[in-house]
C-alpha cells in the first residue's frame, strides 16, 4: 500500500512538472505581446518596452520558468548584496519584500530625482531615514545601485544616465536622468508555495484563485452528491429490469438529457425558473464573496444543469454494467439456488457492476472542477473553469500554471480514490 | 421685451463668445453649438446656458409674442420628489485596475470615475464643461490655456485639491514608465516643462502646437485627478474627490462603492450628492448579464450589444436610453498595396455599400447612416452631405476599367480581415454579398479580437472598430496624416491638401468656419479617401425604470452622482 501511494505521488510530481513546462511553452509561443493587452493599443512602443522591463518579461524564457518554479530572490540577493525577506503588511494583508540591511528592513524609492531610503517601522509602515546611497561605480563610469523598490522588485537604479523620469521643480517638471533600468520582480516560486502575480489582474494569483477554487469545489461537490446517487440508483433499477417499460423510460430520458447540450438546458432552466416563474435566481450573482453561503439558492439552476448532463452518462454506464453482471453464471446460480432477489442484487451483483461506473465518475470529478466553462459562463458563476479560460486567452502564465497544477493534483487525487475504491469493491485487485 | 445679456462680460471671457452669440441669435448655429463654443472658451456652463436661453432665435413670429424663454419651457411635468438611498447593481466585467492613468478599458474607468474625478466633463449631449475646473481660458492662437480649479474641493482623505495634485497627475500621464495612453494623446503638449503652476488654483499650459481639444482630452477616461501622494495602486490608495468611496475591488468578481457623506456637489434637496447609498458592479459575462437584467437581479448592464438590446428593448421594467455616437466599424483599404492603391478600386468598393441594408443586417437598424468620411453627425463641425447610394453598376464599370488597364481578370479576389467582436462579421458578410455583383470576390478572414489587434495596421483590407471621440479634429489626425504612419494610420493614406486643411481646422475655434473646412475635408475623403463607412452606432443605457436621472453616454460612461431610486 505504501509503495502504491508513493508511486502515485511520484507520478503526480512528474505529471505536474511536464504539464507546467508544456503550458509555459505554449503560452510563450501562443500569446502576443501581453503589454499591449495591459496598456491598450493606444500605448506607444516606448511605454510597452518600459512596462515589459518592469514586469521582468525581458528575461529569457528559461529564466522566467526557473523564477516561477524556485523563485527569483536567489539571484536578486546576489545583486542587492543583502538578504531579502518577505513580511506581511498588517495594513493591507499582503506580503512585501524588504532587504535586511544589518537588521533594518529597508526599501528604496526614487522621488523627485533623489533616492530615499525607508526603514520598516514596527507597525509595518515605512519611515523615511536619511542615509547615503552606496552607489557602485562601473568601469563604464556609470554609477549603479541595486535595491528593493516599493513595488516588490529588485531594481537597478542608474545615476545620471539614460533612463528618464519626470522631476518636479518650481517652474514645473523637467526630465532627469536618474531612473530604474533593470527590474527583477521578486517571488518565492511555486516550490515555496508562491504562485506569483497575475498579469491580468495585477494581484497575487493566490488572492484571485482561492475564491474561485472554493466556489468551484462547492458547485462540483453539490452537483456530485446529487447526481451520482441518483444516477447509480436509476442505473441499477434500469439494469435489473432490462427490457421492461421502466428500463425503456429511464434509457430514453438519459439519452435525451445527454444529447441536449448544457447551454440549451441551462438557458431553458433560466427562462423557466429564473425569468418566468422567478422561483430561483437566474444568474449566480456574487454580490459579496460569500454569496453562495448567504443565498444557497444561487446554486439551484447551475446544479440542475450539471445534473441533467451528467445523469444520463452515468445511468447508461451503470445500466450496461449491471445488465452484463446479471447475465453472469454466478448470478444465475444464486437465483436458481433460491436466494432472495434483493440479496442477489446488493450482495453479489452490485459490487462487480460498480467497477465501470467508478472509473467514469472519477473522471467526471475532474471535468466538474475544471471543465464546466460553459455552465459557468451561462450562469455567471465565478468558478475555476472560466478563470482558466480567461487567463489563457489573456496569456497570463502564472495564473494558468497555478490553476493547472491544482487540476493535476485533483486528477491524481481522484484517480487515487478510484483505485482505492477498486480494491475495496474487488479484493482480487491488490497492490503489493 | 427680450432680456438682455451683457455682451461685454462675454467679451471679457473670450472675444469670440459674443460673435457666437450673434450667430445663435441669427439661427446660424444651434443652441448646442453655442454652449459648446462658449464653454470651450471658458464661459461657465451656467452662464452659457442662461445666455443661450436668452438668445431668442429671430423667428418671423409676431413681435407681441411672449418673452423668449417662455416657448422653450414645455409645461413642466409632475416630477416625482427625489428620494435618497438605495443600491444600484450593474453587470460589468472587471479586470486589472491599479494606476488609473494606465487604464486601457472603459469598464475600469467606470469604477474609478465614482471615486476620482476629471477636470472637465463631456456630457451625454457631447458638450464639454468644466468639472473640477471653475473655468478655462484659451488664448487667441489656442496655444496657451489657463485652467482655474474650483476652490474648496476636498479629497476623501480630507486634503484640499490644489494645483499640486493636478500637476502630479499630469506628470503621471506624461511619464513613459507609467504607460498611460494620455502620453500619445497629449503629444502636442510637449512635455511637463510646458505645464506651469501659476498659483495653487491656476495652471497654465503652453502648448507646442495649437489644439482646440484640450478640454475634451482632459475627460479622456484615464485622466482622473489623483492625490499628490499617489503611489501607483488606486485599490490600495482609493483617494479621490469623487462622490463614492471604494469599499472593495476584486478583479473578475465585483466592485462595491459606498456613498461619501461630505461630497462637494450639492443635490436638489440642498444636501451633498450622491443620492444612492451603494453601487455594486458584478463581473459577469454579457449573456449572463442579460439574464440577470431580465430576472431583476441587476439594475443595469454595461454597454449592451445589439443582440442584447433586441432581447431587452420590450421588457416592461426596463428603460432603454440611446446615445448617438461617433463609434463606427470602418472599412479601410491599404493605399500602398495593390489593388487599393488605385482610387477606382477603392471607389468601386465604397459604392458597393448599401448602407441602410448593412445597418439593418448588422445592427438592427440602430444607428445613423454615414458618408465615407471619418466625421460623424454628432461632431459639432460635421458638414451635412447626402448619403451615397448603392451603385453596383457604377462600381462594376470602374472596376472593369481598372481591370482592363491592368490586364486583371474579374472577379477580383480580395481578402477582408476583421475580428469577431461587435458586428464586424455581419458587416463583412453583407459587404461580401453586396459587392459580388460589382465584380469583387471577397473572402473573409475573421479572428478573435486579440488576433486582429495584433495585425490591424497591417492587413490589406479590413474592418476596424473606432471608438467615439467628441470632436472631428480629434479623430482625423490619428489616422489620416503622414505622421501617423507607423502608429494609427492603418491605411497609409495621406493627402497634402487634406493635411493642410486639417491643420487649419485644428486651430479654428469658430465652429462655422471649421465646418466650412470640414465640408472640404469630407469631400476629399469621399472622393479619394481610404475608408468606407456605412453607419455610426448607437450605444444604449438599459436600466430598470425605478432609477431616475440616468443618462446614456456615447462612450458608455456611467455618471452616477445624480441618479436616484424610487421607493
Describe this structure in words.
The complex is a heterodimer of chains A (432) and B (567). Chain A is built from 16 helices and 11 strands. Chain A is α+β, with helices and mostly antiparallel strands. Chain A folds into 2 domains: 72-186, no CATH class; 205-425, MetI-like (MetI-like fold). A 5-stranded antiparallel β-sheet of chain A has the order 1-2-3-4-5. Chain A is elongated and about 100 Å long. Chain B is α+β, with helices and mostly antiparallel strands. Chain B contains 19 helices and 20 strands. In chain B, strands 1, 8, 9, 10, 11, 12, 13, 16, 17 and 18 form a 10-stranded mixed β-sheet that branches. The longest helix of chain B has 18 residues, at 511-528. Chain B is globular, with a radius of gyration of 25 Å. The model of chain B is unreliable at 57-76 (pLDDT under 50). The chains are: A alpha+beta (432), B alpha+beta (567).
Q: In a nutshell, what does this entry contain?
A:
With 432 residues, chain A is of the alpha+beta class.
